[in-house]
Amino acid sequence: MSDVVGEFLTHLEKERDVSPHTLHAYGRDLRALTRFLADYYGAHEWTWQGVDRLAIRGFLGHLARRGLSKRTMARALAAVRALYRYLHLTEVVDANPARAVGTPRLERYLPGYLDRAQVDALFAAAEARVAAPGDAPRFADVRNLAMLELFYSTGIRLSELRGLNRADLDLLTQQAKVRGKGRKERIVPVGDHAVHALRAYDARREALVRAAGAGVDRSAVFLNQRGRRLSVRGVQDAVTRALRAVDGQGNRLSVHSLRHTFATHLLDAGADLRAVQELLGHASIATTQIYTHTSVERLKQVYQSAHPRAR
After folding, report:
1. What is the CATH number that goes with domain 2-100?
2. 291 noted as active-site residue
3. In CATH, which superfamily holds the domain spanning 116-305?
4. Which of 181, 186, 196, 229 is catalytic?
5. What is the spatial distance between Cα 139 and Cα 225, in angstroms, rounded to a whole number?
6. Strands laid side by side in the 169-170 sheet
């Protein structure tokens, strides 16, 4: 059975060109499925053709008992459906039993974001670290300011920032080419403050590249101290440390909060929802609409605190 899963993942990688992140997640979900089915059918030999709707529902129940979130369960079901579409296409099965299984209803939540005062405080602190008296500013401080500015200026995802290459960034025209989910490319504008921070970082980056010698990643925009492409953990650690200093309300702000902040502030200022959808790289405008709820909630709070007859 694992051979079938392996063939399917190879199909996704070679012919569908899905992202490594999706491949890893689908592989993990489908291996969990095969282990569950082995226990579910016990001593009886099972086949992909013989798996029915009840077995798939049992798999989702198994995930729920393990304490996994509804979002994780929905992704696992999507992996199972995709596998069965492939098996149907290759004539291994006659039908897709996962189609008859309902997707778990996902929790709706308002994403955490920074207000204008927090944004000002965030950049004031980052700029202060760069402008601190003494020797030249640390490479990491200059780089971290550039990352913060780029996150807030463009609303790109962590994976998109980490994957940026120098060829993708045009500071003259102030735009960047971003590879999003499903390897879809889009062009995003880069604001003046971000361009200034990126120019300052680029000078320090060049000095690091010249000093590091062999083994340097010359294509990546954001590097670590050894000249290698900065890891996901490296980006997370740098940004969350900066956010922790301005998170006075204990909202547990994360890297993704800067993306939420970007969208919320645009919509608050009257930006068109479709334009924000394009900037964020959302396939569906329904995903972007959650930011309108954020804006409405903020307006409600202002109204309840300011209107004399609101309560």
Report:
1. 1.10.150.130
2. yes
3. Intergrase catalytic core (1.10.443.10)
4. 181
5. 8
6. 169-170, 175-179, 185-189
157 catalytic? Reply is: yes
Per-residue pLDDT of the chain (311 residues; tens, 9 = 90+): 568 999 999 998 888 877 788 889 999 999 999 999 999 988 778 899 999 999 999 999 999 999 998 889 999 999 999 999 999 999 999 989 988 888 887 666 666 889 899 999 999 999 999 987 777 789 999 999 999 999 999 999 999 999 999 999 999 999 999 998 777 899 999 999 999 999 999 999 999 998 887 789 999 999 999 999 999 999 999 999 999 888 866 557 889 999 999 999 998 888 899 999 999 999 888 888 887 776 666 677 777 888 787 77
11 is catalytic: no
Q: Which residue intervals of the chain bear CATH 1.10.443.10? A: 116-305
The whole-model pTM stands at 0.72
Annotated catalytic, 282? yes
Catalytic residue among 157, 179, 260, 265: 157
Asked if 259 is an active-site residue, the reply is yes
Active site residue 70: no
Residue tagged active-site, from 129, 186, 193, 282: 282
What are the residue ranges of CATH 1.10.150.130 in the chain?
Answer: 2-100
